[in-house]
Amino acid sequence: MKNFDTQQTNHANFVVGLFVLVVLSVASLSILKSAGLLSGDLGQAVQSHDLIFHVAFALVLGGLAGLASRASNKPMVALLLFFVVTDELLQIWLPTRQFSWLDMACNVFGCLAGVLIYHFTLFAHTQWFSRSTT
């Protein structure tokens, strides 16, 4: 029993660590953009496809937040929503950035859609395996 608890704890720590790593990676892109250090081809791609990046990153973060919340029994989704809203609101005071309600909506929608996709996939996976074992 103790070995199972250790495995479960290790799994939860891995998932939460992965979630934190991805959040920090996305946050570093935001910081680089705010500092004007995101230039060249990557900077041009981000500028040209801004809303796509917002939704894509938020979908991934939302799915990982759902997974991390389930693994750790902690409200990672609420924490993620706090971070994405705060990140967008801070842009009001940064001269190198521009606040956008559309960006915030894409962030929140992407996060919630990622969580819903994660839960739908988990539900479908559970239903499929429960039918195949009976």
UniProtKB/TrEMBL annotation:
Domain VanZ-like residue range list: 45-120
Residue ranges of the TM segments: 12-31, 51-69, 76-94, 100-124
Keywords: Membrane, Transmembrane, Transmembrane helix
Pfam families for the chain: VanZ
Domain of life per record: Bacteria
Name of the protein described by the UniProt record: VanZ-like domain-containing protein
Natural source organism: Vibrio nigripulchritudo
Lineage of source species: Bacteria, Pseudomonadati, Pseudomonadota, Gammaproteobacteria, Vibrionales
